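Section handout 9: paired folding examples.
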Amino acid sequence: MSEPDDTGSRAQQARAICPFLTTKQTAFHLGLAPSTLKGMRTEGRGPVCRLHGRAWYYHINDIEAWSNARRKGGDHG
């Protein structure tokens, strides 16, 4: 039996423990394939990211800001 999807809780926990997510974690959080996120990074269309050593990391606040900037519909204030 699989566990229920608790992405919001996991993001909150990541923020408290370590605010940086890997490409794979970020892609999962955004509902994208890691290859899609990598392509977006290469083209400069994805969330702000940082190169730490040889790995790319995304700060949870940058992920959320990028996602919020793409909201459509509803009441934006």
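Moving on to protein 2 of 2.
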Amino acid sequence: MTMTKPEAETVTSTPIANSLTAGRLPTPAPWIILGTAIAVSAALFAVLGVASGAGFDWGGAIIVGGLLYVPSIWLFSRLVEGGRRAKDRLVTALVTGAFLLAMIPLISLAITVVTFGLARFDAEFFNSSMRNVTGEGGGALHAIVGTLLMTGAAAIISIPIGLLTSIYLVEYGRGRLAQGITFLVDVMTGIPSIVAGLFAYALFAIFFGPGIRLGIAGAVALSVLMIPVVVRSSEEMLRLVPNELREAAYALGVPKWLTIVKVVLPTSIAGITTGIMLSIARVIGETAPLLIAAGFTQSMNYNLFEGRMSSLPVFVYTQYANQGNPPEAYLDRAWAAALTLILIVMALNLLARLVARFFAPKFGR
């Protein structure tokens, strides 16, 4: 008897549908949609410009094109890739648009300051003051020196106070006293800068009489603004130090003060230095407190404790507000001083980045 082997059934495999990878827009699709949206917006603005006779507005066309791109990319992604991917592309478009929108005034400001500031960005501007200068010529050496002296004195006052306060709050502070200090630091963080200038002026007027203007008074006003920033930034950096490092030092019998000096501070020195540099960059451009407490002068003054002292922000203000003949010379000096101030702040920020990079704990091991 012969038995026949049944034939194997043919099984046809069907692909498994996966909503996460079912469909994808081509890689250049977002750029094509963006270009199309801008082209449609440009055509609309061209028609409106011809009809009104106002000309073509490139800025408005790009902004409206970006606004058209957001719902367009969401719609195309929804039809092809599904709801999950469409939401991702929508949020990406919104975040990118917000970033570009925030960069527009910054880039415009930088281009404007560089364009107008280069007109007087010469050797005379950096090696002469405004003494006996009424028209063209002159420079901002007295303002640059005053800015560096007052900011340096403010840093000397603020850094020890702010750093020691943050050490107390993190390592020792408990109870109502620490809560009160934290509350006062929060309040000081939000006070207007002109209030700091009025405080410094009133403080020195008590001892030297009304109408006193001193460079050290301007430094005190800046220190009032710097201290809360130093406290907050240093406090956050000290709290990031792992408790295991402190406990290991205590287990070896190291006193608490020595643990702070040898373990906690070296571990957080990069972040603390960065915060200090950023606090200096934050106060170096203040105008109102220095105008009240230190005043302004056209001559050189190297003594913080005698006479009025000029600064770059006040120099910019006075050159713009008190224009003489020709007014272009005063405006050129104001723009050049603004460019100098921006370059000083940029240098401080770059120095903070370098300190954070080279003084980080991983480089010291």
